[in-house]
């Protein structure tokens, strides 16, 4: 991999493949893996849908920001973020300092055909909500990413693309 200690940070819509792809990239590069949503669930002792239901999105975003600040201090990690991590500039500043940010861009239609929305609080209203989120977030994903990888092929192709990026660059915007 490029510079020792550089993280690979995956951003993108819910259901774009961040966790699945991130685990595979981490395994192939012999790096550690951290899913920020799972980290929050472990620390809080409850699921993300439960946090949203009982405490609301603002509370969750505060937890997410604390988790991002802590996790961004790790080294040699592949980090899978929540889809809304880009909503707060501070989150992205921490992540940007920690490594390469890769936007996994996947069409809303492909996401809808693949994911179960029950466990995803912001998608409980179905595909209309997903299209709205995509429209709200696409410019932020592009703004904060160092690279964009389109998830429209095989998982293996996407993993290989990310590995190629990681091996060729440390942090391109340094």
Q: Can you give the helix content as a percent range? A: 40-55%
β content, as a range? 5-15%
Please trace the helix and strand order, writing H or E for each element. EHEHHHEHEHHEH
Q: What does the overall shape look like?
A: globular
By DSSP, the count of extended strands is 5
N→C terminal distance: 16 Å
Alpha carbon gyration radius: 15 Å
Low-pLDDT regions: none
* Biggest beta sheet summary: 5 strands, parallel
Which CATH first-tier class would you pick? Alpha Beta
State the CATH superfamily name: P-loop containing nucleotide triphosphate hydrolases
The CATH topology corresponds to: Rossmann fold
- Average of pLDDT: 89
List keywords for this structure.
174 residues; EC 2.7.1.71; alpha/beta; Rossmann fold; five-stranded parallel β-sheet; globular; Shikimate kinase; single chain
Structural commentary:
There is one protein chain. The chain is of the alpha/beta class. The chain has one domain (7-168): Rossmann fold, CATH 3.40.50.300. The chain contains 8 helices and 5 strands. A 5-stranded parallel β-sheet has the order 2-3-1-4-5, with helices on both faces. Helix 1 (18-29) crosses helix 8, helix 2 packs across helix 4 (57-71) and helix 4 packs parallel to helix 5 (89-98). The longest helix has 18 residues, at 127-144. The protein is globular. Catalyzes the specific phosphorylation of the 3-hydroxyl group of shikimic acid using ATP as a cosubstrate. GO terms for molecular function: ATP binding; magnesium ion binding; shikimate kinase activity. Mg(2+) binds at residue 19. Its EC number is 2.7.1.71. Its main location: cytoplasm.
């Amino acid at each position: 991999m490029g510079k020792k200690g550089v993280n690979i940070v995956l951003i993108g819509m819910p259901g774009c493949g961040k966790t699945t792809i991130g685990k595979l990239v981490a395994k192939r590069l012999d790096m550690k893996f951290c899913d920020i949503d799972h980290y929050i669930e472990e620390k809080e002792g409850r699921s993300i849908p439960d946090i949203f239901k009982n405490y609301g999105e603002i509370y969750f975003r505060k937890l997410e920001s604390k988790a991002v600040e802590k996790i961004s201090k790790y080294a040699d990690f592949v980090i899978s973020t929540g889809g809304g991590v880009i909503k707060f500039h501070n989150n992205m500043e921490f992540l940007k300092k920690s490594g390469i940010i890769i936007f996994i861009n996947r069409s809303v239609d492909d996401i809808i055909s693949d994911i179960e929305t029950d466990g995803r609080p912001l998608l409980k209203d179905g595909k209309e909500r997903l299209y709205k989120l995509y429209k709200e977030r696409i410019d932020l994903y592009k703004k904060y990413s160092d690279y964009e990888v389109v998830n429209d092929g095989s998982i293996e192709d996407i993993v290989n693309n990310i590995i190629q990026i990681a091996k060729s660059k440390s942090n391109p915007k340094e």
